[in-house]
Design a protein that fits this description.
mainly alpha; about 80% helix; globular
Length: about 425
Amino acid sequence: MDPITMGLIGMGLMFVLIVLHVPIGAAMGIAGVATFGMIRGDLGPAMTLFGTETISKVSSTELAVIPLFLLMGSFATVGGLSADLYRIAHALIGHIRGGLAVATIGGCAGFGAICGSSIATATTMTRIALPEMLSRNYSERLATGSIAAGGTLGMLIPPSIILVLYGVLTEQFVKTLFVAALLPGLLAVALHVLTIMFLVWRRPDLAAGADRQPFGEILRALRGGWTAIALMVIVTGGIYAGVFSVNESAAVGAFFAFLIALLRGRLTMPLFWQALQETAATTSMIYLMTIGASIFTYAVTISGLPEALVSAIRDTGLPGIWIVIMLMVMYLILGSIFETISSMVITIPFVFPLILSYGYDPIWWGILTVMVIEIGMITPPIGMNVFVMKAMLPKTKLSTIYAGVGPFIAADILRLALLIAFPAVSLYLVQLFNLPQ
């Protein structure tokens, strides 16, 4: 057999293992070793990939940022910073019709900038914001939809775990990706807010108005939440201003989040160990997937399969923009089948060379990839954020949550189209600050 056929067999083996519920990282690693063994005709050298790639990833300084950001998010949750951010947004804009839903989007964006996790953001805001909205006669559809959609902002707004992972797997600068994600992240917030305003304008019964908060209450909310704002400024502002590297910023953020939770008296020993265990479990999963992806990428690259795929697609004569659109549709479909990080990790060995062959910017493509995976977090029939919310709200129908996220998915598709049509939205700040690409 020629190497390309062996590469196809290896890819088929990977999907068979996934169907058999083998963890994605393990499936990719096993398929990669088997593929390389077939190409070399000897399984011995292939087995060494388990050691070399594991050492390479475990010692990677770029990947080291992931457990630190995860730990920061865990301590921030224990410290109640998400509730502080929501109270500030509620005090400022909660009085307008739909204001609590808008405050939820603002709270999700703020907490996403601290924890970097979509699921953690959706879970936390379900506990905090949903009872507030339902108690003020908000439609359950609007309330759950705004939380599920707002939760996806944690994936795009820096510091984002998936942006770090994309940077490591494609050898792009993480700081450059963070800067490139800033304007698309703000655009996402703006479009979600406009979606809420449009919905309550068309259907005033979806949300009730509320009394304007007195100035003293606003001051109390700001005074109680200054630590959350300070943590956001330290982490993200430190990166953008060049005060910290990404790794240093993650370490400083984790320490300050720990300090805030400790000084507030919320960090009991059981919660401390729980935060460490959650961080360790998630970090292990991400490292396993990264190691497996690295082994699989190495094997399929040796087989020549990505080059053959690129050549076959280029020979069709399709313009690059149609390839981009088809890949976006593919990611939306994958997002409804696979867990979000998995869909990116599995496809990078084939998609990334194709994008480069058409001359597209890898930073721009990284933002697009994260955005479309973000949409997959709320896209039927899976939608990880939707299922997490359903697990927390057993009395709420799944169809209610899906109906609630529908308008937000439409807004996200519009945002995706804008970034495809105008790459400068994600590249302007990168070029302005002359960051490496």
